Amino acid sequence: TADFSESRSATTRAVNLLRPLEAKLLGDIDRRKLVQQQAAEVQTILAGAETTDRQVDATKAALSPELTGLRENARGLVRTARERIGVAQTTQNGATATEAVRIAQDASDAFKKLLDEVTKAARGDFEQRFEQALAAAGEQFSFVTNSFTTLQRLVAEKPDSMTPEMSTEREALDKSRIQLQRRFHNSKKTESLAGVEETTRLLTDIR
Fold first, then answer.
1. What DSSP element (H or E) covers 143?
2. Mean pLDDT of 126-133
3. Mean pLDDT (whole number) for 197-203
4. What is the rounded CA–CA span in Å between residue 1 and residue 3?
5. Angle between helices 164-189 and 94-157 (to 10 degrees)
6. Helix (H, G, I), strand (E, B), or coil: what is residue 61?
7. Which residues are CB-contacts of 200 (< 8 A; sequence separation ≥ 6)?
8. CB–CB of 196/205 below 8 Å?
9. Long-range contacts of 134-142 (CB under 8 A, 24+ apart)
10. Listed residue (45, 110, 43, 98) closest to 74, CA to CA
11. Do residues 174 and 206 make contact, with C-beta atoms less than 8 angstroms apart?
12. Which residues of 58-85 are buried (b: 16+ CB within 10 A; e: fewer)?
């Protein structure tokens, strides 16, 4: 009986010793899994941020000093996020991993803001150029229309002056004018700057 009691006491002591070790081991495993998950999250966020950075390059827009500063700050955040998650993985530090996720998200948000600002600026520049192109095309259409109106009046006044060759040429030019009007309206509707500019060039050829 005494041996049984002693054995039971020893077992109890062993269990009491092992429980903290088990808890620590389980805690370490959970922390390691959490750090791994956060490391994967950081990589996903940064991959998206770098894609947004490349989209900024794709706009081929000239960045203002302010936007250049915003981009440099965002890239700095990317470097910091990578450094912090590297430390977190080495030390298995959950707080550092959480910090890395936050910094990575800040980098992503900064790049999104940059792309938004660049897109707005590019749109404003396009709208200005498009309006100028529409005005130029309108001037050419006005000139061509006035020229045809004058020609029709002269023909009405002196029908004998219109030779068959001249009549054929006039009809061909008038047909081209109508086609260009359709092209112009389609280009205006689809906001095709190249289409409007090409219409203006062809109208100049008609003149």
1. helix 94-157
2. 88
3. 88
4. 5
5. 160
6. coil
7. 133, 136, 137, 140
8. no
9. 134/188, 134/196, 136/197, 136/200, 137/184, 137/196, 137/197, 137/199, 137/200, 137/203, 140/200, 140/203, 140/204, 140/207, 141/180, 141/181, 141/184, 141/203
10. 110
11. no
12. eeeeebeeebeebbeebbebbebbbebb
Query: In the structure encoding, which two tokens stand for residue 115, read together?
Result: 């792309």
Mean pLDDT along residues 42-68: 93
Q: What gap in Å lies between CA 205 and CA 207, rounded to an integer?
A: 5
CA 163 from chain center: how many Å? 59
Contact yes or no for 114/59 (Cβ under 8 A): no
Residues across the chain: 207
What's the pLDDT at 70? Answer: 95
Residues 6+ apart with CB under 8 A from 91: none
* Dihedral, 158, 159, 161, 164 alpha carbons, nearest 10: 160
